[in-house]
Amino acid sequence: MSERVIEVVAGVITDKRGRVLLSRRTPNRDMPGLWEFPGGKREHGETSEAALARELDEELGIRVTVGAPLIVVPQRYPAKRLRLDVRHVAHWEGVARGREGQALAWVAPDKLGRYSMPPADLPVVAALQTPDRYLVTPPPGDDDAAWLQSFDAALRRGVRRVQLRLPGIPGDRQEALLREAQIRCRLHGAQLLFNGPVDVALAAGAGVHLASAALQACTMRPVPAGIPLAASCHHAGDLAHAVAIDCDFVVLGPVAETASHPGEPGIGWSEFARLRETCALPIYAIGGMAPADIPEARRHGAQGIAAIRSLWSPD
Ligand SMILES: Nc1nc2c([nH]c(=O)n2[C@@H]2O[C@H](COP(=O)(O)OP(=O)(O)OP(=O)(O)O)[C@@H](O)[C@H]2O)c(=O)[nH]1
Ligand SMILES: [Mg+2]
């Protein structure tokens, strides 16, 4: 698809209580009735900051200082392509009101999911609500106690989402490690997803991470809503299938070359962003990724990074 990409900039405006401002699209525009982050199209020659300040004045009557970037979402809709550049608003002055007749709502971040929003906003909401890094566990070797100590250390360093992946480990040992990992995740308020049999994951109170073959074998969501479901994706077909079975998020890659597959180049950021356009899910970039890559990942529409080495034992 080669048609022009519409550049849109939107703001995350928060009040003193941490609530986020949403604005409702009016009946005379596309996607009427959906809630969105206030903002609009960047004009020719305008910087993103200037465009956002202008739009927020026109639409809400407030004067703003644009803050840190949150995420840039490349998104393809049936009749157009856009790049939604979302910025935090660092400071604002005035009284926000719907100057174009639109309804406004101040929404607590954990309630954003209750508002129907355009597909491009799903990754934005995920970026506000959920972790920017997803640890994939390395195999335990022959020392489970040492492995669990490293697991604890990763949680202490701030990991809050974990895929437990233990290839080649016998079932009973795997289940014991899963139980121990779940105890530790609960202590730290972290989310655990098991890359293994669904019944074993559910019995341990964990979510499910589907390897790409397991994803393709699923014809419907294998766990109830409320139990986290993720999948590993390598191409557009995987992403479409993940959407069809209603995954909560996915990982996509390899983006760069990895230590485990030397000599195999990754898909790179532009291909990542191209694949990202087609699907409205939070997507972690995997393959040679480290926390230092998170800003770049966010600029290409990723939720953040998924990694083994760099999140398990940082140098
Ligand atoms: N402002 C904003 N636009 C979004 C979001 N999500 C999203 O898909 N869009 C899409 O991005 C485009 C932005 O258009 P807009 O209608 O706000 O543009 P605008 O303020 O310049 O208005 P105008 O072109 O009607 O004068 C629309 O196609 C809109 O559906 C979002 O969170 N905020
Ligand atoms: Mg607008």
TrEMBL record:
GO molecular function annotations of the record: 8-oxo-7,8-dihydrodeoxyguanosine triphosphate pyrophosphatase activity; 8-oxo-7,8-dihydroguanosine triphosphate pyrophosphatase activity; 8-oxo-dGDP phosphatase activity; 8-oxo-GDP phosphatase activity; metal ion binding
EC number assigned by the record: 3.6.1.55
Superkingdom of the organism of origin: Bacteria
Nudix hydrolase domain span: 3-130
Keywords: DNA damage, DNA repair, DNA replication, Hydrolase, Magnesium, Metal-binding, Mutator protein
Annotated catalysed reactions: 8-oxo-dGTP + H2O = 8-oxo-dGMP + diphosphate + H(+); 8-oxo-GTP + H2O = 8-oxo-GMP + diphosphate + H(+)
Cofactor: Mg(2+)
GO BP, one annotated term: DNA replication
Keyword DNA damage in annotation: yes
SUPFAM superfamilies referenced in this protein's UniProt entry, alphabetically: Nudix, Thiamin phosphate synthase
Alphabetical list of PROSITE patterns matching this protein: NUDIX, NUDIX_BOX
Pfam families attached to this UniProt entry: NUDIX_4 (PF14815), TMP-TENI (PF02581)
InterPro entries in UniProt: Aldolase_TIM (IPR013785), MutT-like (IPR047127), MutY_C (IPR029119), Nudix_hydrolase (IPR020476), NUDIX_hydrolase-like_dom_sf (IPR015797), NUDIX_hydrolase_CS (IPR020084), NUDIX_hydrolase_dom (IPR000086), ThiamineP_synth_sf (IPR036206)
NCBIfam families found in the cross-reference section: PRK08999.1 (NF006530)
PANTHER family: 8-OXO-DGTP DIPHOSPHATASE (PTHR47707), NUDIX HYDROLASE FAMILY PROTEIN (PTHR47707:SF1)
Family (UniProt): Belongs to the Nudix hydrolase family.
Stated name of the protein: 8-oxo-dGTP diphosphatase
Source species: Luteimonas chenhongjianii
